[in-house]
Structure formats: C-alpha cells, structure tokens
Amino acid sequence: MWLIERTGNELAPAFFVIVVAVVGLAALFSIRRGSLHRVEGTRDLDEAQAVEHI
User: Fold this and answer.
1) Which of 15, 20, 46, 51 sits at 20 to 30 Å (Cα–Cα) from 39?
2) pLDDT, tens digit (0-9, with 9 covering 90-100), for 25-51
C-alpha cells in the first residue's frame, strides 16, 4: 500500500481512517445543528410558507 510505503508506518491507514471519520462526524453534526436552527423559526408557519422560508 502506497501510504505505508510513503510513511514507513504500518498504522498509517488506520490513522487516516480515524481522521476522515472525525472530519465526517464534525460535518454531520454541523449540518444537523444548522438545519435545526432553520426549522425552529418555522413553527408558526404553514407548510407552504415553511418551504419558502427554508
């Protein structure tokens, strides 16, 4: 595997997967948090107005 050859560390692929997972989770939580803030302002709107609001 090129990553092991490049770094000389057999655990490099595992570290890479961990870093990618952490970045992905951070993105997931930021998207969810942003979506919830947008939806909270639409409680008193009917469905058509809520869709326009988002």
Assistant:
1) 20
2) 998 887 755 555 555 555 555 666 655
Q: Are 53 and 35 in contact (CB under 8 A)?
A: no
* Spatial distance between the Cα atoms of 17 and 14, rounded to a whole number of angstroms: 5
Rounded CA gap, 39 and 54, in Å? 8
| pTM confidence score | 0.55
Closest CA to 53 of 45, 30, 32, 33: 45
Which residue spans within 1-54 are E strands per DSSP? Answer: none
